[in-house]
Structure formats: C-alpha cells, structure tokens
Amino acid sequence: MRLTCPICGLEVDVPDDVISGEVVEHDCGAVLEVVVDGSSALLRPLDGVQEDWGE
C-alpha cells in the first residue's frame, strides 16, 4: 500500500496488513504514525514519547 507523507508529499510504502498505531520512518527523516479508519489509512507526524535507547 502506498500512502502520502504529510511532511514532504512523497509516497511511502507500507505493508498491506499495517495496523493503526504502527510507526514508520520515511526517507525525508519524518517519523510517522499510521492511522487506519475502516478501509482507509493515512499517515500523520508522530507526536509524543519516542524511545531514547537508554540515553
């Protein structure tokens, strides 16, 4: 499935079985959250706590 990055406007490939809340990184450096609503899906910039890997 291809969705549009809300930051740069380019397409982002995501798996067909993606679920709401999954996080994907795009080539433009954006960290995006997948939002699934029924049969449609979209991407939005991830807001909130991100992992800091123990830093």
Shape: globular
CATH class: Mainly Beta
User: What proportion of the residues form beta strands (DSSP E)?
Assistant: 35-45%
Helix content: under 10%
Describe the overall structure:
By secondary structure, the protein is an all-beta fold. The chain has one domain: Rubrerythrin, domain 2. 0% of the residues lie in helices and 40% in strands. The chain is built from no helices and 5 strands. Strands 3-4-5 form a 3-stranded antiparallel sheet, with no helix packed on it. A two-stranded antiparallel sheet has the order 1-2. The chain is globular, with a radius of gyration of 12 Å. The termini are far apart.
What's the SSE blueprint?
Elements: E1 2-4, E2 11-13, E3 23-25, E4 31-37, E5 40-45
Antiparallel strand pairs: 1-2, 3-4, 4-5
Short description:
This protein has strands at 2-4, 11-13, 23-25, 31-37, 40-45. The protein has no helices and five strands. Strand 4 (31-37) and strand 5 form a beta hairpin.
